[in-house]
Amino acid sequence: MLTLKQRWLSGLWKKYQSLPLRCLISTSISKGKQSKVPQYPVDPLITDEICESDTKIDIELVQHLEKLSLVDFANKEGLLRLQAAISLADQLRAVNTEGVEPMYSVLEDRSITLAEDEVLIGNISDDILGCAKETLEDYFVVPPGNIDYIPEDSYYEKLKDDKT
Amino acid sequence: MKCLSGSIKNAVQLFKQKQISPLEVCEAALRRQETISRLNAYIPNAVVETTKSEALLSSQRYEKGTPLSPLDGIPIALKDNFCTAGIRTTCGSNMLKNYVPIFSATVAERLQKAGTILMGKTNLDEFAMGSGTVDSIFGPVKNIHRSGLCYKFIDTSGEAIHTSAMKPTGGLEKDDFYITGGSSGGSAVAVAAASAFLATGSDTGGSVRNPASFCGVVGLKPSYGVVPRHGLISLVNSMDVPGLFARTVDDVAAMLAVISGLDPKDSTSVPSNMKTFELPESPSIEGLVVGIPKEYHRPGMSSEIIDVWTMIADLLENKGAKVREVSLPHTKYSIVCYSILNPCEVASNFTRYTGVEYGQRMNSSQSMEAMYALTRSQGLNNVVRSRILAGNYFLLEENKEKYFKQALKVRRLICQDFNKVWSEKVNLLLTPVTLSASLRYSEFIKYDNRSQTATQDICTQSANMAGLPAVSIPISLNDEGLPLALQLMAPMGKDVEMLSAAKWIEQQVGYPKLRVIDT
């Protein structure tokens, strides 16, 4: 295997010379001066620096997250995707952020214009209700609430089976 | 019709001289939309019924000599995550498949008031989550380059001598195609194929610049807050910006003038003075300090990208700019940081999709919670659901500090890197947009959406973290006949100065025009 630098040395300049845009550069910068663009990667991939994450997901966690999210994973693939997302996120733990304040907004250093407290649009309740599938008089209609969503019995069994 | 693939200025001049009418251009644009229909750039069945009558009204305004703005009569397209009153707005998702908003996005409203003609809504990754425009319920969008459609390249006159006429334009074998990039792929194709002069996109991690670079058009991500988000269906509130597509920098500038400015309906919009500006005829780069962030040479970046980057940096240096190597050491973390902040904001934003007030609803007699869960499972694709789950994981009481807060701190470090560079009198940064030219669909789908986004947004994401303006400019075609592009970034609020330098580069490189041959 050639290293990246060797690949650069062998192949890059040949290609560079042959590109049509080359004619744009009347006096070549490479005479005596070097281009400011680095010709090989400067930073390693961060995955090379940090060992793999050790976070594991169990069925209880899955159930908890599904309840919070009101969605289901439904399969092993979904579990793996979550695991992968967490592994990626774990790479950030290596960054030293001591004494750094969290940044919520890029507009933090300026005043944001507040809207006047006045009604700009009104009398559109019919339009708004018109977007809903089920309404009664001026209300949106839903089935009884505050009942935990329980997927069918076999659901988590299936997830466990998939895992093994 | 030649005028269709020309500049806005040219079209408007012809309107004013009554050599051609907005209605005629509109009809030509509709024919073009038909010609490129198999690229899947537009949301099907969403052809705007009012299109021709709007164009007729515009024609009458020119007859009377009272055009509404410098964009009157210009065909445009909107990404289908901008709400349009009375016109279905789907976000490429089952959840909103039949959703007809009762209001229009501020951007859509401003474009309408300017007299532009809406040609249609464009296809996108579901809820703008993706970097390929392959995850939409309407199917993937195909890049026009090497699509099998008939087109040719025309060299612009000028000093640059391109050999674009000799670049391959034939279709790929076995139904394969090149991706458009994403998530605003439909808009990029709509503009590249000249079915519209202008299109909006949305850019949260590179969703405008990435497809602009793969499709050979100009893609602008304005400074955060300069263009209002009201009516742009939210992905990540703290990073989303409406973006702009056009074939030339001047056209992008003309659109920015119309859609920028404070909006009382958007608490994160900021005042700006971009309402009336025109870029100089021949911009100068004399004395401009251009930084080359060395860390943007990422492992795995293709040599042809490094080549164009090197050439334009050298060109700038030779023609009077001061080019310097600079360091943005935390940029390499922006993707990982984004992989936490995006799901966190998504988990919060997407609680609105319950099926109760609008959108798809699956009925369940069991309970409200069951109805929500069924609706969301049916309505949202794997990618969206995964992000909601991941977000809720990162936001768990025991994880909040470790993931969410840590990511927000890294966000500050990323921003501080930029501020340090600006304080050293650097005016602009020049970087690649993507790791390579467009990829074949067959290659792209080997990896899932999450890892693709992590790879593809690597050069673009940090601008969203810091709220900076950034623009993708097409530079040249590679041996496969695919566009190669570069990105300029500038301090917040310096959108116009950045576009001026982009125009200079555009004039120097003379990127060839793609002309579709209507069948």
TrEMBL record, chain A:
Catalytic activity: L-glutamyl-tRNA(Gln) + L-glutamine + ATP + H2O = L-glutaminyl-tRNA(Gln) + L-glutamate + ADP + phosphate + H(+)
SUPFAM superfamilies noted in UniProt: Glu-tRNAGln amidotransferase C subunit
KW Ligase (keyword) present: yes
GO MF annotations, alphabetized: ATP binding; glutaminyl-tRNA synthase (glutamine-hydrolyzing) activity
GO CC field: glutamyl-tRNA(Gln) amidotransferase complex; mitochondrion
Enzyme nomenclature, EC number: 6.3.5.-
Subcellular location: Mitochondrion
Gene Ontology BP annotations: glutaminyl-tRNAGln biosynthesis via transamidation; mitochondrial translation; regulation of translational fidelity
Keywords for this protein: ATP-binding, Ligase, Mitochondrion, Nucleotide-binding, Protein biosynthesis
One Pfam family matching this protein: GatC
Function statement: Allows the formation of correctly charged Gln-tRNA(Gln) through the transamidation of misacylated Glu-tRNA(Gln) in the mitochondria. The reaction takes place in the presence of glutamine and ATP through an activated gamma-phospho-Glu-tRNA(Gln).
Family: Belongs to the GatC family.
Subunit and partners: Subunit of the heterotrimeric GatCAB amidotransferase (AdT) complex, composed of A, B and C subunits.
Cited NCBIfam families: gatC
Protein's name according to its UniProt entry: Glutamyl-tRNA(Gln) amidotransferase subunit C, mitochondrial
Organism classification: Eukaryota, Metazoa, Ecdysozoa, Arthropoda, Crustacea
From TrEMBL, chain B:
Catalytic activity: L-glutamyl-tRNA(Gln) + L-glutamine + ATP + H2O = L-glutaminyl-tRNA(Gln) + L-glutamate + ADP + phosphate + H(+)
Superkingdom of source: Eukaryota
Domain Amidase: residue ranges: 37-143, 178-499
Transmembrane segments: none
Entry-linked InterPro entries: Amidase, Amidase_CS, Amidase_dom, AS_sf, GatA
EC number: 6.3.5.7
Compartments where found: Mitochondrion
A Gene Ontology cellular-component term: mitochondrion
UniProt KW Isomerase keyword: no
Enzyme class: ligase
Active site positions, chain numbering: K79 (charge relay system), S183 (charge relay system), S207 (acyl-ester intermediate)
GO biological process: glutaminyl-tRNAGln biosynthesis via transamidation; mitochondrial translation
GO molecular function, one term: glutaminyl-tRNA synthase (glutamine-hydrolyzing) activity
Keywords of this entry: ATP-binding, Ligase, Mitochondrion, Nucleotide-binding, Protein biosynthesis
Major location category of this protein: mitochondrion
Summary of the function given for this chain in its UniProt record: Allows the formation of correctly charged Gln-tRNA(Gln) through the transamidation of misacylated Glu-tRNA(Gln) in the mitochondria. The reaction takes place in the presence of glutamine and ATP through an activated gamma-phospho-Glu-tRNA(Gln).
Protein family according to the UniProt entry: Belongs to the amidase family. GatA subfamily.
Subunit structure, interactors included: Subunit of the heterotrimeric GatCAB amidotransferase (AdT) complex, composed of A, B and C subunits.
Identification of the protein by name: Glutamyl-tRNA(Gln) amidotransferase subunit A, mitochondrial
Organism encoding this protein: Halocaridina rubra (Hawaiian red shrimp)
Gene encoding the protein: QRSL1
